[in-house]
Structures
1.
Amino acid sequence: MNNRLKILRAERGWSQQDLAERLEVSRQSVNAIETGRYDPSLPLAFRIADVFGMTIEDIFLRGE
Amino acid sequence: MNNRLKILRAERGWSQQDLAERLEVSRQSVNAIETGRYDPSLPLAFRIADVFGMTIEDIFLRGE
DNA sequence: CCTTTATGTCAATGTCACTTGACTTTTTCA
DNA sequence: TGAAAAAGTCAAGTGACATTGACATAAAGG
């Protein structure tokens, strides 16, 4: 499942570590989700949406 | 994470088995998600939203 | 340069999502 | 009432999500 995390994070000038702290997950988890190694859990997807002030649908793409 | 699955399913007159087939998961998974024993994965949450023609945010509630 | 910061990735571990199969209880309806 | 369908739940297994700690490489800035 593709996502726009890397772009959104870069737009805000945040490092993976910065985002990880805002989400209360490890830096490795952020990296794994960004690089598409796995998808976040639903609760984490909601926290991600909240951090960026967007909906889950805006960040995570159905295709592939 | 609370959800409106049971209500939405009942509105359509579907059994848990019916919904499970549409989602391509087991009946036990549908039951577990409905009764709040665990949350669906993000890909499954998208399929659930698709089946009901709604967004994830419309079906799964942030609170609790 | 050279040190710091950022990123990518690995291994090992633990927990959660999801499975099949079985069983009990509740609901429906002929 | 009584059989069938639906719902709830348990156990055991598998794979995915997420962790810490470590290491390699790349990028940035002094």
2.
Amino acid sequence: MTSVDSTTPPSTKMALLDSAERLFAQNGIDGTSLRAITQDANANLASVNYHFGSKEGLVGAVFGRRLRPLNSQRLERLGHALLEEDRSTKLRGILRAFVGPVLEMRFDRQRGNPEFIQLLGRTFAESAGQPRRELLAEFEHVLSRFLAALSETLPELEPEALAWRFHFTVGAMAYTAAVGRPLSELIQGGDVDYSPQVDRIIEHLVDFLETSWMRPDRHRDRNGS
Amino acid sequence: MTSVDSTTPPSTKMALLDSAERLFAQNGIDGTSLRAITQDANANLASVNYHFGSKEGLVGAVFGRRLRPLNSQRLERLGHALLEEDRSTKLRGILRAFVGPVLEMRFDRQRGNPEFIQLLGRTFAESAGQPRRELLAEFEHVLSRFLAALSETLPELEPEALAWRFHFTVGAMAYTAAVGRPLSELIQGGDVDYSPQVDRIIEHLVDFLETSWMRPDRHRDRNGS
DNA sequence: CTAGGATCCAAACGTACGTTTGATTCAAAC
DNA sequence: GTTTGAATCAAACGTACGTTTGGATCCTAG
């Protein structure tokens, strides 16, 4: 379930990727030692440097393995969404194409890799202001495609409003993916399994976002500070 | 400007807090060594353990110094907002009381401490799923007060919808505070100073949130999975 | 059967970390 | 003028880290 390719035999390389992904998500990248990873994967300490060159190489491999399929799926769904005619339906489709794959990978225990998404959000927050260049490059194409789609669907929106709304959209999604349960419950210390509710959570979020995106822009002639 | 109390002489203790806050925000808590902090503060390596007992003690002091005033300000503004009669105005007031102090502290170079907010968001993301207990305890009271206020203002909202909307609200705010500029610009690598636009950003976010909060709940009889 | 490349492994290397120690400085109290 | 306690300081302690090394082991092609 954890290995991305179930046909190949369980190689040391894959075991290292799986262990690293899980431990990175739990304790952070810097907080995870190669000793912990290799021990978890039943591999030798030197195996990481042999297979990936360095710890940094391992980090890149962990991200690349999941990020490529994730973004492909987003773009494919975006393509379908753009075929819609009704404006509201199209908007919902775009938003769903953007947040769906991430939240499914986060909450769906069957097909998903919850820990990778947690790692993704974590890494993004850690690098606030100046994200890892590799990570940003991987996203750049996808983000611009979605921005273009939203701009076409809501042509009356000014660029500034578009930018901020997209920003808040990413924020709500990333935070949901990173924290994984409502804050209110986090306080009470509950322990509910949210994996059966994936689609419900996605609909909650898409509802939340769609409403805000449809709102007319009121900031045409205000001034800050 | 950085020290919280400008009347007292520049003590080693305050210098350590200031340096730690800045370096923690830049490189993370684990990524910042006591040697870096004490060097930055022109203090001796052992001074941290003398004044704060341990590195963990220093971390707690860094958070406590800013968190107390921040949450006091939130509750005070919440009190004023609750005096409003018009529902929409009251809702906007509550949302502004919640996100305003954080974003002002993030973007306002005059009165604010941008780096602390960055540190806050970062720490929250790092601890995804199981935040630092101290940090959560500090917030618990504030969060429940805001949840109660929102529930009273929008009594027709079901608890689940309320919980998720509040969750998305925190997400959009936290992400904005952590990243600090629109993603679209982050890709292009721009270098605009957003500090003069504090109020504008807050209004964008409050608009975004208010619209979603006002939406009627449509999930009364759906089922997940 | 055997060469040779890929893989694994135990051990060690140098570096950086948080913390502790014991001496030293300094200013107020008596 | 002496005492006392807080504050500072250089130095060292033990631990953990990422990486390197060089030999052992495995597997496959010739």
3.
Amino acid sequence: MDESELPRVLQQMWGIEGRSRPGPKPAFHISDIARAAIKLADAGGLAAVSMSKVAAELGFTTMSLYRYVDAKDDLYVVMLEHAFGDPPALDPELGWRGRITAWAEAFRDGLRRHPWILQIPVQEPPLSPNQLAWMESGLGAFEGTPLTPPDRLSAMLLVNIYVRGTAQLTANMLTEPDAIRAADQLYTERLTMLATPDRFPGIAATLEQPLDEGYAGDFDAGEFTFGLDTVLDGIQARITRLTN
Amino acid sequence: MDESELPRVLQQMWGIEGRSRPGPKPAFHISDIARAAIKLADAGGLAAVSMSKVAAELGFTTMSLYRYVDAKDDLYVVMLEHAFGDPPALDPELGWRGRITAWAEAFRDGLRRHPWILQIPVQEPPLSPNQLAWMESGLGAFEGTPLTPPDRLSAMLLVNIYVRGTAQLTANMLTEPDAIRAADQLYTERLTMLATPDRFPGIAATLEQPLDEGYAGDFDAGEFTFGLDTVLDGIQARITRLTN
DNA sequence: CGCACACTGTGTGCGCCATACACAGACCAT
DNA sequence: ATGGTCTGTGTATGGCGCACACAGTGTGCG
């Protein structure tokens, strides 16, 4: 219950004010760090984010960052919190399906905007304000369904996992459509060469379908909603079971 | 189509023999590298795997590894290939549901045995023998269903994503049950403190359920199959739609 | 009003990392 | 037998995260 036991970064992000203290005023705020780091990551991927680069971007020395952030991992937390803005406002007119779909698409769009998010090593469950707001928003999509709160949590996590997973498949360095297409073609080529029908009949059959873009193919909007619908059908089944 | 364009590591893993060449015989094989690296990763996580440590484990110098592996990323590929052994043999007696469930559980067990797999930055779609064998095995689970090959691929990927995603939630450094329990309790505590019912009613409602273990709670076997069943229900719905 | 001291940003330095490059020796095709 | 190619090695470079000591700053307390 003691708020002081919260890591410094969390305190800052929740705006928990320390009483006015002696010493010089901080020259900036963690949100400045987040902005600088995100700028670097958007431009050059997560690998382009280092303490020194972020500090240089801000015009300060490397070590000054450690007055705001305990370790590099904290930097990631702050970046995440800042990269997802507010969660989408879900139209209550829509059914739960429409709402969670909108939520999933907003999440996907966030990942598209900041592909480096997928490269961040996941290590702690979320506790920052925007992260929780997204959770809340996702849970709210199931308002009016007979799902219990834990069921809603599971359902939301399922959708969350789906979006992350598919985004991961969509080639991690998206941005360049030409690059994606080239990488996809190279992959299909190699797969065709290695996955011979005698040893890998299932894979080979998949490759024969001309429409199919291959495993790492361009996971476009159509395929996204198609797979998402499958997940939602599963949730629907659970709801139906409860309703009877 | 030219095999020589394959990266060296892939050639080695597929056992493509280069014609006998001048020069000293290689002192070891990439599989030795894989074994050493996996040993280190099992003991100390992916962070414990460095070129020098792996080399030391083998009794060679750091730079010698680069005669077998073009870069660190290749090391990861080799580790992955070696960590998953052969895919499970699926009992044809079972229906598709039983088969894909067995496949998912085998996959989950693999991730449990080698948690560091989840820390590997995903960058390339799989092309190594065992990876393809697992794909083939997963696709084979849908033998006898009306699903088309691309449908089967989507379904398998869905299950694959689900397993990865849930494993990710299960606290990435599992192993120690006490540590998991402690981390979980700390998380629930903080969440209770931060997610106040006024601003986060949905999350708060979830926390009120005494049974619930919280977001990052111990994702035990029961919850795993429960969530998996939801996914499979979605696939079932698709099958049913095709059958009519 | 003044002062003690907590806090700020800075500079230096350490150990580790991935990997480029030049080299001496080992071995097969000819 | 020998030329050329491949092996493992030693050395070196630039980057990284971060520990630590320091000088200056400004607030709360006396």
4.
Amino acid sequence: MDGPEPDAGPPAGEASARGGIARGAVTLADVARRAKVSPATASRVINGSTKPVAEELRARVLRAVEDLRYVPNAHAQGLARSHRIAVGVIVHDVSDPYFAEITRGLQRVATEHGRLLVICNSYRDPARELEYVELLRAQQVAAIVLAGSGYHDVAFTKEINAKLRAYQQSGGHVSVIGRHEHVGDAVLPANEEGGRLIAEHLYELGHKHIGVIAGPKVLTTTTDRLAGIRRAAKDHGRALPARRVVHSDFSRDGGATSTAHLLHDSPEVTAIVALNDSMAVGALAWLRAHKISVPGQVSVAGFDDMPVASDVTPTLTTVRLPLTEMGARAMSMALSGSAIHPTRIERVEAIVVARESSGPPPA
Amino acid sequence: MDGPEPDAGPPAGEASARGGIARGAVTLADVARRAKVSPATASRVINGSTKPVAEELRARVLRAVEDLRYVPNAHAQGLARSHRIAVGVIVHDVSDPYFAEITRGLQRVATEHGRLLVICNSYRDPARELEYVELLRAQQVAAIVLAGSGYHDVAFTKEINAKLRAYQQSGGHVSVIGRHEHVGDAVLPANEEGGRLIAEHLYELGHKHIGVIAGPKVLTTTTDRLAGIRRAAKDHGRALPARRVVHSDFSRDGGATSTAHLLHDSPEVTAIVALNDSMAVGALAWLRAHKISVPGQVSVAGFDDMPVASDVTPTLTTVRLPLTEMGARAMSMALSGSAIHPTRIERVEAIVVARESSGPPPA
DNA sequence: CGGTCTGCGGAAAGCGCTTTCCGCAGCCTA
DNA sequence: TAGGCTGCGGAAAGCGCTTTCCGCAGACCG
């Protein structure tokens, strides 16, 4: 109505009296000046403070905000406010479906609580993981969630725990998913039990010689799942010689080449367990390329039950983990309760989803 | 050596003289106090300022940082420093492989430039997209990258452009991927040409009746790709009646149900083009479930060439877009050059990758 | 031996916001 | 009509950091 800028075009002249040129963002002071109120009042209107403000002033402020397209500077707000708003998550790689699912759960709960989620990809690099902890701490996040396998690396574990503890000291909350060796609340999937169950499934189908395509040795997820398979083997009076466990990198291509090695070195194998679905998919691809029928000649099983498991041919037998729920629970813990309480641990179950890729061994 | 805390345990007593209790983060002032230097000097040491500082003081500061596990408050730094460090990205959904690939490219270049990437998922909700623009603006990011299809929605486009323009006014850089209707530099994939090429491929195999499983009507990506298919049809003297274009939601399940509808309504169809790979995979699944051989009875083609395309059976013929490179180029533009320059547009090519899912129509 | 540099540490002024505290009106009550 | 409330706006003090500017020494020169 009375503004010098009748249309919505960005006002060039007025911003930040210092300088004169409009470069640089519009500040609260600009808004206050234009609305002819104090910054205090402008702030109150904008943030919906409980303190009452007269209708007229309120309207003037809102008008000014609109005209100037004002957006508060989050850094300044973060500094001035006491409470933390964002939450940080460190995963190996969000674009990996495993983490995508977990992240979905984290995201949902975070959003429900009005929190902003900052996602960091460590790409399985411990050094980067350490850096990200520092970064998130610097960002003053309210909580840090660490998802994905831990490492068999004492020095690293000690260091990251020290950092996490320092973070907790300063009032932050830590929760972890699938890492039992850390500070903080934990959501632990039944990796070992899952390994046991899938091997059990294969032994019961009649297989005698199971081969395993494992992930990197340094990851606890690898060793946990492997331990379960070993246990099942023992229960059935079978051995799992080292020769029949090949380590790879949890990638599709790694699964393919490992299949080649495994079958070359141990031709007696009639069933392959890959410790994640990506590698299982790679195994399937290699077997198809080499005209080895699945499950006719060789059975294949994966781990995680990613969406792709039901799209490959044959559809993939695998171990299902409730990934989204795990994320949701980790975030719930991260956002609930005081910082000081005994460490909570929630365990989640694994179940076998039998599909087409597993069957009895060839007669 | 002379610190009161000989071991690495977190020092509880000293932080932030105000209060006495150690709750709350360690500040630069704490570090300075412990090192017996001024905050200015501490800051210089920590940030590796160009200004020389005597070796002894430097060592004392570093020691204090170590002892106190000090991490600078990023908000305070953001406020005090002039230059912006983070870069924002708005995508539909990072866990969608299409965006995962793009994000990988964005990430790489951002990291090369020492920038932190803030990723926001809009889940194809225009309102959320608007919110995120504000949020990123509030975070004072150096650049905003908008990836993923635009919307056929004039009001929305106008509003988001207004916001983006305001952001540019204040010195921010905007670049977009696959959206031609926006403010800012753009990386534009050859969506229309890709559509033309894939249809061309099918017509040349001898197909006469092509059906299309399209994405949501409101997305420009959908209409662009469709336009290319229409053009190819016209070039071959063929029509593409509305009946043979069914709209879905770019999801796997949407692809499956759309296949059912399409073949029910238009049994003459011998080739199906899905406008992304997820829907193509869904189509494949439906066809397999209904014992319709691919490509024997029906050919199927996708779009994007996501990794899964070579894992399904039969492997999927599709249109490849250099997604990672698109991300990298968008980020390069976002981080290069001054804010004031003519809008740059970079176009990237699409090529057909013929695999097993397409072949001649049944005789 | 006085004067001018130069080298380096510290004081202090912000960055943009929130929030406490103060004070001015206008109102009610006695 | 005086005194005390209450309601609401503004002044100002930080939040934790960076960075400019100043000043003190010691080095060097004439």
